[in-house]
Structures are given as C-alpha cells and as structure tokens.
Design a protein that fits this description.
This protein has one domain. Helix 4 packs antiparallel against helix 5. The N and C termini lie far apart (47 Å). The longest helix is centred in the N-terminal third of the chain and has 19 residues. The protein is built from seven helices and six strands; from the N terminus they run H-H-E-E-E-H-H-H-E-H-H-E-E. Strand 5 and strand 6 form a beta hairpin. The strands form three sheets. The chain has a two-stranded antiparallel ribbon. It has a two-stranded parallel sheet with strand order 3-4. It is α+β, with helices and mostly antiparallel strands. InterPro entries: Transposase_21.
Length: 209
Amino acid sequence: MVCHNLPVHMRYQLENVYIASIIPGPQEPSYYYLNHVLQPLVDDLSHCWSPGLQLTCTALHTFGCLVRCVVVLLVCNLPAARKMAGLAGLGKAYGKFCSFCQQDSADFKNTDISSWPQRSWQEHLSIARMWKDAETESIRQQIYGTFGIQWTELLWLPYWDPTHFIVVKAMHNFFLGDLQHHCQNVFGMDAEEKLDGSHIQPHVSNSEG
C-alpha cells in the first residue's frame, strides 16, 4: 500500500511503500478464503476511518491532529477485481461481464452506453448482505446464481463502493493491449482508410466470416 497524500515523486519510493498482507500459495484463494485473508486488513482500515488516528505531533501541527485513512480504488486485473469485489467471474453462467453496469454478455455488441442499466451501490450492498445472512449454502448459491453477487469483507468499509471504485490497471489496459483488443476484436472498431480518405473499411472478425 502507498499513501496518496505524498507527492508522486515520493509516493512509490521503497521507504514509503509497505506490505499490508501476503496471500499464501500455491494457488490463489477461493472467494471464501479470500475474505479470511482480507478481514485483518479491513479491521485496521475500519479503525483508520472511524475514529481515525490521533497523531501527537506533525511538522505542521505541533499539538497533533486527527488523521483519517480511506481505501478508494481497487486496482488489479479483471479476474482479481471480480473476486475482491464479490462479483461473479467472467466465466460464470450469470453473464454480467461489467462491474459498473448490468449489460448482459449475450448483448456484448451493443455499444450504446445510454442503454446499459447501471449497477447501484445500495442494491449491491443489499444483495451482498442477503448472501452473507443466508442460513444455508444452498440459499447462498441461489442468490449468487441469480444476481452474481456475494459478500466481500471490503463492504465493511462504509465508504467503499464496488460499483465505482474498481479500476483496470494501466499495465493490462494499455501496455498489454486489453483496450486495443476490445476496440478492434470485440467491438469491431478497427478501420482501414484509403489514401484519399474517401472510404473506411470496417473490421470483420474471424467469427463473422
């Protein structure tokens, strides 16, 4: 973890970065065990938000001050983001591939953003609590299969909104070509223009002939 109050040129220096937790291997944890890994960290973060940390003295406050800490953005690759936020994985039959909207994977070619039904923080939290409070594993599976949502320890943080705070990190989005792949191969936005600029040939994927 890093402190974003620090200037950018200092933020990622080794002395200003600390290990918050280590997830044991050899495989990545399941949804169930991931919550156990997150719990101690979330407990500390909850205390850092309310009541906060009372510092006895700082460079600008001789008599100390109250500091509050928040974790806002969840920055990781897409499979990890879905698991950390309590959302169904992309390979599940639930079919909702986006963390911000309810667009169905069967209609993935629809690029009209105004028609995409948006996710709601309140609805997400309500369903997650329903999953957490379910009396049997069978009921939990029904809730998860219907809504693609289950409880994550991050939801104990009263400010954390999974419908707005999930970010695909730049390494995957730009440097590894995720954005290029989605634009060219998924949405068919690749184009080849003639020298005179009079015609644009739209991209046709292999699956379409």
